[in-house]
C-alpha cells in the first residue's frame, strides 16, 4: 500500500518495520513527529524523556540489553546528548541503535543553524541522509542493519524539508526482531581508561572499514548524465538538483559520513566540472578536497540557509531571475490570543524588568509591544544566566528575572536552580507552567501526569521540586490575575533569597473550544492601553479599536487593563 | 488533471496545513505523485506561513520557488500580496478578503497596505463572512476549500469527502455548509 507520509512519520514507520522495541525522545522541531508517531504502535515502548541526554541513555541501555532502539531529537538536542553519544561510539551496540537527528537549515524554529554532520565527524559515528519520505523509511531500516553489522550507533540525519514534507511511501510489514543475547562484557561496555584506549583503536578501524565498504553501498550511487557537469549531493538537496539540472551527472550520497572516497574520485574524474552541492557547512567538500580531489562547492554556494532549485540554477548556471516582491509589513510570530504567558510578559514589561529568557513559545515575549527579553541562548539557560547577572552586579537581582517553561525547567532548569540555592544567589525565577510542551505541539512531560500515550502516571509537583532543592520562597499564581502577578513579583524581587513564582494556567490551544469573542462598545476612549498587551485579536483599525472574533478566546486580559469598561463579553 | 503547483499561505493557526493535506489527499486518490511541504513549530504562532502542494506525474523538489506557482490559495489578504511574486505568468490568486493585523501594524510601526485587491491577479472571497454565516469564524478554511475545488474544476463530492475525513465529527455540518458557500462564491 502506498501512502502520502511526512518524512518524520516515515522514519517512525521504518523503525517500526525494522522491529524497533524502544523509542525515546525529547520534543524538538522538526523531529517531534517521529516519536509521536511511534507512540501509536503498540509493539514499541515509547517515551518522552526529560531531555535528550536521558533519551539517548535510555536508547543505549535498551541496545546493550539486546533490543533495537531509536532516539530522536533536533540538532541542538544532540548537543545535550553529546556526552553519551561520544562514548556510545566507543562501546558500540548490541541491538541496533539509531539516533534520528533533524537539522533546521534556514532556522525555521531553532536558536541556531548548526550542522549535525560535523558533530558526527567529531563523535566518529556514521550518518545516513534520506532525500524524501520513501528514503526516510528505507534508510531507517538500513541504519539498524549497519548499526548491528559495524557495531556502532548510526545517525539518521534529516533536515526540515525532509522531516516536514510529505511524499509517497510504500508500506511494508514489521519484521519482529528478537532481542540479541545479553552477556556482561566489561571490556566492551565499561568505558574506564584501560578499555577506552583499546576501543578508540577499534573505532578508528571501524570508520575506515565503513568508508572503504561504502564505495559499494547501493545508497551511494552514480546517476550518469551529461559529462560536462557532475554534482555530488545528498538529502533534500538531491531533489533540488534533479529539478534544476535534470541532465547533469549526479553522485547521490546516502551515507554522508564516512565518505566513499574511491567512488567520489571515480565520479569526479568522469565529469568535466564537478561540484559539491550541500547546505550549511562544507562537510563533504572539505573532506573530498583533503583527499586531493578537485571540486567546487562553497565558492559558488552559500553556507547559510536552505537551498532550492532556483538557488542551484543561479549558483551553477548563473541563471538569475529578478523577481520583485511587494514591500509589505512583516508578520512575525506572536503569542496567541489567550496565551497564558501574555499576562506575565505584560507585567514584566510594565515593571521594566530585565528578563533572562529560555526556549519555548514564551521566547515570543521578546516581540514588541511586550518586548521583554534580554537574552535567550539554549534550553535551561535562563536560570544560569540570572545567577550570572546576580553575581556580576549585586543590584541586578532587584530588577531581573529568569523565565522558563514547565517542560524546559524539567529539561535542564532544575540544575540551575540547585546552583542558585547552593551558591546563595538572590534570583527570582518565573516558571511559566502552561501544563504542556507548547511550542512543539503539546506533548506531555513529567509534570502533566500523563505519558506519551496519554496514560495516567506520577505527576511531578513543581512546587515540591523547588522546595526540595531548598528554594525558600515558592508560590503559584494565575498569570491572568495581573494585579496578583505584579504584587508577587515586587515582593519576591525585594528579597535577598532565591524565589520561584509558578505562573500556572493551561495553554489556550489545549481547549478546542469555539468562542464567540468579545466586543468593544461605545465607552472606548481610544486610550490604547489594551494594545500594550500585544494581543493579535485586538485591532487598531480605521474603525477605532475592535476585536477580531476569529481570534479572540475570551481570556479577559483586555477587560482587566481597560479602565472604561469598554470591552464586553463573558469569558473564562 | 494537469501538473499543478499550489502555494497555500496565511497566518499561523488559520488551517493552511489542513488545506494542503486535503488537496494532497484528493490528488493522490486521483493517481498523481504528490509532494507537500509544511511549516511547524515557532513559525506557526500567528506568523506568516506558507505550505507547498505539488501535484504531477513525478515530482522532485517539495518546494515551489518564486515565479513557479500556478495558484496561490491565500487565507488572508496581506499574505496574498506578500507571496504574489511566487506566481508564474498566467497564474492567479484565490484569496480571502479577511484582514488580520500583523503586530507591527497593531503597534503603529507600520500601516496595513491599502488597495491590495487592485494589485492581485485573481479572485477574492469573503471567507470570514461566509464562515460566520455557516456557524463560526473557524470554518473560513472550509469556505476557501470550497472555492478552491470550484476554481480547479475538481470533483466536488470527492473533494468534499477528503475535507470531511480530516475534521472533527461534531463540526461536520458547519464545515459542509461552509464548503457549499465557498463553492458558490466563485
Topology:
The complex is a heterodimer of chains A (572) and B (186).
Chain A: E1 2-6, H1 7-17, E2 22-25, H2 32-38, E3 45-48, H3 52-64, E4 69-74, H4 75-80, H5 82-91, E5 97-103, H6 116-123, E6 127-128, H7 133-150, E7 154-159, H8 160-163, E8 165-170, H9 186-189, H10 193-213, E9 221-223, E10 226-234, H11 235-244, E11 248-253, E12 255-257, H12 261-270, E13 273-276, H13 283-290, H14 309-317, H15 341-350, E14 354-356, H16 381-392, E15 400-405, H17 406-422, E16 428-433, H18 462-468, E17 473-477, H19 482-493, E18 499-504, E19 519-520, E20 538-541, E21 544-547, H20 557-561, E22 567-568
Helix pairs in contact in A: 1-2, 1-7, 3-5, 11-14, 16-17
Chain B: E1 4-11, H1 16-29, E2 33-37, E3 48-56, E4 69-74, H2 77-82, E5 87-96, H3 103-106, H4 116-119, E6 122-125, H5 127-134, H6 140-152, H7 156-164, H8 172-185
Parallel strand pairs in B: 1-4, 4-5, 5-6
Antiparallel strand pairs in B: 1-3, 2-3
Helix pairs in contact in B: 1-7, 5-6, 5-8, 6-7, 6-8
Account of the 3D structure:
The complex is a heterodimer of chains A (572) and B (186). Chain A is an alpha/beta fold. A 7-stranded mixed sheet of chain A has the order 3-2-4-5-7-6-12, sandwiched between helices. In chain A, strands 14-15-16-18-17 form a 5-stranded parallel sheet, sandwiched between helices. In chain A, 35% of the residues lie in helices and 18% in strands. Chain B has helices spanning 16-29, 77-82, 103-106, 116-119, 127-134, 140-152, 156-164, 172-185, and strands at residues 4-11, 33-37, 48-56, 69-74, 87-96, 122-125. The model of chain B has no long low-confidence stretch (mean pLDDT 93). Chain B is globular, with a radius of gyration of 16 Å. In chain B, 39% of the residues lie in helices and 23% in strands. With 186 residues, chain B is an alpha/beta fold. Chains A and B meet through β8, α11 and β20 of A and α1, β2, α2, α3 and α5 of B.
Descriptive tags:
heterodimer, A: 572 residues, alpha/beta, Rossmann fold, 7-stranded mixed sheet, 5-stranded parallel sheet, 20 helices, 22 strands, globular, B: 186 residues, Pyruvate-ferredoxin Oxidoreductase, domain 3, 6 strands, 23% strand
Amino acid at each position: 500500500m502506498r501512502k502520502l507520509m511526512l518524512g518524520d512519520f516515515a522514519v517512525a514507520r521504518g523503525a517500526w518495520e525494522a522491529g524497533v522495541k524502544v523509542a525515546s525522545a525529547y520534543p524538538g522541531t522538526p523531529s517531534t513527529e517521529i516519536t509521536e508517531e511511534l507512540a501509536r504502535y503498540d509493539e514499541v515502548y515509547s517515551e518522552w524523556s526529560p531531555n535528550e541526554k536521558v533519551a539517548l541513555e535510555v536508547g543505549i541501555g535498551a541496545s546493550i540489553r539486546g533490543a533495537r532502539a531509536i532516539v530522536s531529537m533536533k540538532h541542538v538536542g544532540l548537543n545535550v546528548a553529546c556526552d553519551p553519544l561520544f562514548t556510545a561510539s566507543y562501546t558500540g551496540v548490541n541491538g541496533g541503535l539509531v539516533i534520528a537527528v533533524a537539522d533546521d537549515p534556514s532556522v525555521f524554529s531553532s536558536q541556531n543553524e548548526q550542522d549535525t554532520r560535523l558533530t558526527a565527524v567529531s563523535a566518529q559515528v556514521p550518518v545516513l541522509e534520506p532525500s524524501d519520505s520513501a528514503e526516510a523509511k528505507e534508510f531507517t531500516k538500513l541504519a539498524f542493519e549497519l548499526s548491528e553489522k559495524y557495531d556502532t550507533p548510526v545517525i539518521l540525519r534529516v533536515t526540515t524539508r525532509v522531516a516536514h514534507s510529505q511524499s509517497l511511501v510504500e508500506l511494508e510489514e514489521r519484521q519482529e526482531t528478537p532481542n540479541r543475547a545479553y552477556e556482561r562484557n566489561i571490556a566492551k561496555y565499561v568505558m574506564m581508561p584501560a578499555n577506552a584506549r583499546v576501543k578508540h583503536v577499534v573505532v578508528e578501524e571501524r570508520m575506515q572499514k565503513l568508508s572503504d565498504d561504502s564505495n559499494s553501498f547501493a545508497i551511494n550511487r552514480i546517476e550518469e548524465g551529461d559529462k560536462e557537469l557532475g554534482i555530488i549531493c545528498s538529502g533534500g538537496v538531491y531533489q533540488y538538483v534533479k529539478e534544476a539540472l535534470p541532465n547533469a551527472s549526479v553522485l547521490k550520497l546516502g551515507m554522508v559520513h564516512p565518505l566513499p572516497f574511491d567512488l567520489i574520485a571515480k565520479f569526479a574524474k568522469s565529469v568535466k566540472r564537478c561540484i559539491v552541492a550541500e547546505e550549511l557547512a562544507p562537510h563533504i567538500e572539505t573532506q573530498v578536497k583533503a583527499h586531493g580531489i578537485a571540486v567546487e562547492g562553497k565558492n559558488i554556494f552559500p553556507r547559510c540557509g536552505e537551498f532550492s532549485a532556483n538557488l542551484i540554477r543561479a549558483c551553477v548556471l548563473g541563471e538569475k531571475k529578478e523577481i520583485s516582491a511587494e514591500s509589505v509589513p512583516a508578520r512575525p510570530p506572536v503569542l496567541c490570543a489567550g496565551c497564558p504567558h501574555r499576562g506575565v510578559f505584560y507585567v514584566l514589561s510594565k515593571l521594566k524588568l530585565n528578563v533572562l529568557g529560555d526556549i519555548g513559545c514564551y521566547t515570543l515575549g521578546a516581540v514588541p509591544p511586550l518586548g521583554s527579553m534580554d537574552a535567550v541562548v539554549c534550553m535551561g539557560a535562563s536560570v544560569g544566566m540570572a545567577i550570572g547577572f546576580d553575581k556580576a552586579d549585586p543590584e541586578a537581582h532587584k530588577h531581573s528575572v529568569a523565565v522558563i517553561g514547565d517542560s524546559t525547567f524539567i529539561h535542564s532548569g532544575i540544575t540551575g536552580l540547585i546552583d542558585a540555592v547552593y551558591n546563595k544567589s538572590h534570583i527570582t525565577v518565573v516558571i511559566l507552567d502552561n501544563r504542556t510542551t507548547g511550542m512543539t505541539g503539546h506533548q506531555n512531560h513529567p509534570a502533566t501526569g500523563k505519558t506519551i500515550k496519554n496514560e495516567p502516571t506520577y505527576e511531578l509537583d513543581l512546587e515540591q521540586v523547588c522546595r526540595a532543592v531548598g528554594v525558600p520562597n515558592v508560590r503559584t499564581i494565575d498569570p491572568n490575575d495581573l494585579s496578583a502577578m505584579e504584587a508577587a513579583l515586587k515582593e519576591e524581587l525585594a528579597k535577598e533569597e532565591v524565589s520561584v513564582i509558578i505562573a500556572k494556567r493551561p495553554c489556550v490551544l489545549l481547549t478546542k473550544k469555539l468562542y464567540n469573542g468579545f466586543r468593544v462598545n461605545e465607552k472606548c476612549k481610544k486610550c490604547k492601553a489594551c494594545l500594550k498587551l500585544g494581543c493579535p485579536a485586538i485591532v487598531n483599525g480605521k474603525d477605532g479599536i475592535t476585536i477580531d472574533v476569529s481570534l479572540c478566546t475570551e481570556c479577559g486580559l483586555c477587560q482587566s487593563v481597560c479602565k472604561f469598561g469598554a470591552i464586553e463579553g463573558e469569558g473564562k | 488533471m494537469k501538473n499543478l503547483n499550489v502555494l497555500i499561505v496565511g497566518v499561523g493557526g488559520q488551517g493552511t496545513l489542513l488545506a494542503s493535506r486535503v488537496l494532497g489527499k484528493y490528488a493522490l486518490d486521483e493517481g498523481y505523485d504528490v509532494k507537500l511541504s509544511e511549516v511547524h513549530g515557532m513559525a506557526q504562532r500567528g506568523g506568516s506561513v506558507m505550505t507547498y502542494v505539488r501535484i504531477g506525474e513525478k515530482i522532485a523538489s517539495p518546494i515551489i520557488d518564486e515565479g513557479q506557482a500556478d495558484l496561490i490559495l491565500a487565507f488572508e489578504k496581506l499574505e496574498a500580496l506578500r507571496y504574489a511574486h511566487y506566481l508564474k505568468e498566467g497564474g492567479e490568486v484565490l484569496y480571502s478578503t479577511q484582514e488580520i493585523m500583523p503586530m507591527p501594524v497593531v503597534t503603529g510601526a507600520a500601516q496595513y497596505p491599502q488597495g491590495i485587491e487592485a494589485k492581485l491577479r485573481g479572485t477574492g472571497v469573503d471567507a470570514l463572512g461566509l464562515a460566520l454565516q455557516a456557524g463560526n469564524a473557524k470554518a473560513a478554511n472550509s469556505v476557501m476549500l470550497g472555492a478552491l475545488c470550484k476554481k480547479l474544476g475538481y470533483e466536488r463530492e470527492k473533494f468534499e469527502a477528503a475535507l470531511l475525513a480530516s475534521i472533527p465529527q461534531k463540526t461536520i455540518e458547519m464545515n459542509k455548509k461552509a464548503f457549499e458557500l465557498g463553492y458558490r462564491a466563485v
